[in-house]
C-alpha cells in the first residue's frame, strides 16, 4: 500500500491526536533519531541507528515507532543552499520510498539546511563539548533540531505562537 509523502502543513490532519512523531537525520554512517512528546510541542534526541542494511535500519525504526505510539516521521531533507535538491536529498527521498514499500508510514520532509552546522556550533559554544563527544551526539541532536523546527513551524502557521 502506498502512503503519500505529506506537505508538512498537512501532516497533523493525517495523524491521530496524542501521538508522537519521530524526526530523522539521515547521515552517511548513522541515522539520528529524535522523538516528540504526544502533544507535539517538544522534540528530544533519542538515539542513533547505525547504518548497515536497509531492512535492519527499517526494523529498528519501526520498533521505535511501535514502542512510542508514533504516527509520523519527519525526515530532514538536505537541500542545497539555493533550494535545489542534490544527491543527498534524492537519497533521503529514496529512503522514504523504501520504508513505504515495507509498511505504510506518514512522512513529511523538513528543510535541514544548516541543521548540522547549527548543532555543531551549539555543542561547541554553549556546551563546550570536545570533538569526540560532539561526534557521539551530533546526529541525534540534529534530528531533534529538524523535528523541533517542523513542530515550531506548524505552531507558527496555525497561530499558536
UniProtKB/TrEMBL annotation:
Record's protein name: Putative pre-16S rRNA nuclease
CDD domains: YqgF
Primary role: Could be a nuclease involved in processing of the 5'-end of pre-16S rRNA.
This protein's record includes keyword Hydrolase: yes
Protein family (similarity comment): Belongs to the YqgF HJR family.
Species for this entry: Brevundimonas terrae
InterPro entries: RNaseH-like_sf (IPR012337), YqgF (IPR005227), YqgF/RNaseH-like_dom (IPR006641), YqgF/RNaseH-like_dom_sf (IPR037027)
Keyword set, alphabetical order: Cytoplasm, Hydrolase, Nuclease, Ribosome biogenesis
Domain called YqgF/RNase H-like: residue spans: 19-119
Pfam families (alphabetical): RuvX (PF03652)
Taxonomic placement: Bacteria, Pseudomonadati, Pseudomonadota, Alphaproteobacteria, Caulobacterales
The EC number(s) this enzyme carries: 3.1.-.-
Compartments in which it is found: Cytoplasm
Amino acid at each position: 500500500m502506498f502512503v503519500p509523502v505529506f506537505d508538512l502543513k498537512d501532516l497533523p490532519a493525517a495523524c491521530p491526536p496524542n501521538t508522537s512523531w519521530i524526526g530523522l537525520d539521515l547521515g552517511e554512517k548513522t541515522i539520528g533519531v529524535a522523538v516528540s512528546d504526544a502533544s507535539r510541542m517538544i522534540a528530544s534526541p533519542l538515539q542513533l541507528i547505525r547504518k548497515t542494511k536497509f531492512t535492519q535500519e527499517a526494523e529498528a525504526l519501526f520498533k521505535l515507532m511501535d514502542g512510542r505510539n508514533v504516527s509520523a516521521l519527519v525526515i530532514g531533507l538536505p537541500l542545497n543552499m539555493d533550494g535545489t535538491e542534490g544527491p543527498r536529498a534524492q537519497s533521503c527521498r529514496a529512503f522514504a520510498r523504501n520504508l513505504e514499500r515495507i509498511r505504510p508510514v506518514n512522512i513529511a520532509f523538513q528543510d535541514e539546511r544548516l541543521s548540522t552546522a547549527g548543532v555543531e556550533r551549539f555543542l561547541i559554544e554553549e556546551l563546550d563539548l570536545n570533538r569526540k563527544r560532539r561526534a557521539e551526539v551530533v546526529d541525534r541532536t540534529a534530528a531533534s533540531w529538524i523535528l523541533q523546527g517542523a513542530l515550531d513551524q506548524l505552531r507558527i502557521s496555525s497561530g499558536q505562537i
